[in-house]
Design a protein that fits this description.
By secondary structure, the chain is an all-beta fold. The chain contains 1 helix and 10 strands; from the N terminus they run βββββαβββββ.
Length: about 130
Amino acid sequence: MKTITYAFPHGLIFLSSPTDMTPPVPTYATQFRFTQSCLSVVCQHEQEGTTELSIGTPEEVDPGYAPVVSGVIATPTRQLAVSTSAADDILSISVPDIETLLRVWVNHRQWPDKVQVGIGGAEVEHQMSRNVFF
């Protein structure tokens, strides 16, 4: 598991393959948006402080309640990159397959300062799903 604390510009976190990031547009319409190769997650804005981001297996990051979103992105390089709205790569983690199931938990429904991302842990589904607990 990797954990970082970072002040994300525009309150946006992008999770993608480092070589193929096609960001969702618009990024501001919902808390979470997918493309085939990217997931955007809204978090606390940098002027409000930092956000703690943890990435690991679902068993490592699951806080004990349902994820707010889950879906599959393409990871042809078997790497998952975390980047900012300024396209700065701040973290990279190896993933086992060329398609990666991501599950996201947050601690606040609008401006979370804690985001947990579970990678893999189940057979990759080809349908994106959304579980909303708010």
